[in-house]
Amino acid sequence: MRALGDIVDIDLSTGAVERWPFAATTARFALGGRGLGALHLWKEVGPDVDPLGQDNVLVLATGMLTGSAAPSASRMQLSARSPLTGLLGSANIGGDFGHGLRAAGVAALVVRGSSPRPVWLHVAPGRLEVLGAGEFWGLETDAALAALNDQAGHGERLEALVIGPAGERLVPLACVMSRGGHAAGRTGLGAVFGAKNLKAVAVAAGSSPAPTNARAKTAVRTYFEGIVNAPWFPEISKYGSTASVRWSSDRGILATRNFSAGTFAQADAIDGTALQRYVQRRRGCRRCPVRCKADVAVTSGPHAGFIGQRPDFEPLAAWGATLGIGDPEAVMYLHDRCDALGLDSISAGTAAGFAVDLYARGIIDTADTGGLELHWGDAAAAGALVEGMASGEGFAGLLGQGVRAAAAALGRGAERYAAHVKGLELSAYDPRAATGAALGYAVSNRGGDYTNVYARHEFDLPDDVAVRLYGDTVVSDPLSPEGKAIMVRRSMCVSAALDGLGLCKVPALTLLNRYDLEMEAELAEAVTGLPVSAADLYLAGERIVNLERLFNLRCGATEEDDRLPVRFTEEPLPDGPGAGRTVDLWPLRHEFYEIMGWGQDGVPAPAKLAELGLQEGL
């Protein structure tokens, strides 16, 4: 059986370190990654824990397959109580850091307490060093990554998770970055790093193991071939998720001008096909054939000399359509500034769009913004907001608290235009023309986020799969509520299982598009040696979802938090295929509760908890 690695526990307040093996029983119960994070939070973080206090527990957990020979197994999960939402803090990240952590023999790093001085952690096989980070404090993320490698010396190449100035200043929209533009972006976990005086966690770059036995070789090859032979592989491999800009505008679901419309006239200009002229080379995570990342460069115009990473679809939407900006070079630059400063690009773009919307409606003016005029399509003003959000000061600093907090502070009806669920800003889809996305936003355990649920079967579902998984083909109509509750249930549980395994959802769900976990179960059993079936994986995913739900309930969430902002329930969508529609989630939400085995108050029933092994006292 493949070694599962160790759990390494460090208290930054005292320097105490403990280490114990990651047990196979725990791996089968919660997998790894997202499941291990949820398990730690449920056991150790109570409702009185301040998200920015030293009692908050930060878990950096690799998936059960992360760092193995499995294709696209580079993902890991960061978990803590969120300073943005007060509920589940959960962010997933790719790149090479997870490979390095597993190569060092670590399945998960649990960080407690708070250092009295800025520090960084150097993880190596059999040891963990706490080193001073005073010289790195204040550096932007790319500069900090370079400085860490300079300090390592001896030709050692480090992979690191690092925060920027936003995290150091405890900005609730702060994220955690790694090399190549990979971000653990959502729910403000960069601020948790900052509150612990933790600038970075670094590991030596890990190796890529080959399959070790005939069954593993076959499973790895089968999974790899399934990905590269998928119908969407040529497009996704070339453009990543970026070609979804034009696709979503055509469907009338592209979040435009702070969700005041679903189509964007300049969608073609910021679509991935248009960005192709800036691409210098494609990149990807280790052992992944998709290679969906890309380096970009601008050689002329106002942003001449810009070199960075191509934004994924949701940041493109956030800094493009959401702000009415159709200049692709400006959009790439704004996203890059978020990465450098350590800001969640999705939330920051949505917060900026919220501010422009309020200004356009006359709810705020220059007296509120400190003299800054805000207009749709004004990239310079958007840039000023980015810098201000990261500083934590002034009007933009208020936006950095998130749209829920900013709307509450401003009043004057601003709450109506704050696009969030549970305090987390919505991502790129307008829910009025995508019913599965609407329900997914509402019930997602981390708040208004699409990828946490990933209910894309409402957009791309072969008839035979629709009948096999959902009993009817009508489920694939995004404007229909039929079948969406069962679709969202499956999407949530499958997504949680994939996050527990450390597998990327782009190959697993966008390309393979099976949502049955059969191939993933064979891959997991063949590579790890642990007996696991598709039913076992689905049950583990359901267990993770329920653990997260229990944690949120303990932190004060209720069924009233499983709702969309009133703008989507009262204001009809003005354009696109969904024109004239609003969202009525009340019956759909309670249908979802019923099939989840929850009460009408959204609380998991005792029978469901017993079925999942989540009885009181776990």
Please give a structural write-up.
With 618 residues, this protein is of the alpha+beta class. The chain has three domains: 199 residues, Aldehyde Ferredoxin Oxidoreductase,  A, domain 1 (4-Layer Sandwich), CATH 3.60.9.10; 178 residues, Aldehyde Ferredoxin Oxidoreductase Protein, subunit A, domain 2 (Orthogonal Bundle), CATH 1.10.569; 182 residues, Aldehyde Ferredoxin Oxidoreductase Protein, subunit A, domain 3, CATH 1.10.599. The chain has 27 helices and 17 strands. The chain has a six-stranded mixed β-sheet with strand order 2-1-6-3-4-5, sandwiched between helices. The protein starts with 5 loop residues before the first strand and ends in a 6-residue tail after the last helix. The mean pLDDT is 95.
Q: What's the assembly state of these chains?
A: single chain
Number of helices: 27
Gyration radius, in Å: 22 Å
What name does the CATH topology of the largest domain carry?
Aldehyde Ferredoxin Oxidoreductase,  A, domain 1
Number of domains: 3
Query: What is the correct CATH architecture of the largest domain?
Result: 4-Layer Sandwich
CA-to-CA gap between the ends?
27 Å
- Biggest sheet features: 6 strands, mixed
Percent of sequence in beta strands: 5-15%
Average pLDDT score:
95
Assign the structural class, choosing from mainly alpha, mainly beta, alpha/beta, alpha+beta, or little secondary structure. alpha+beta
Q: Would you report the number of β strands?
A: 17
CATH class type of the largest domain: Alpha Beta
Question: Which bin fits the share of residues in helices?
Answer: 40-55%
Shape: globular
Unreliable runs, pLDDT <50, ≥5 residues?
none
Please state how the strands of the largest beta sheet are arranged side by side: 2-1-6-3-4-5
CATH superfamily of the largest domain: Aldehyde ferredoxin oxidoreductase, N-terminal domain
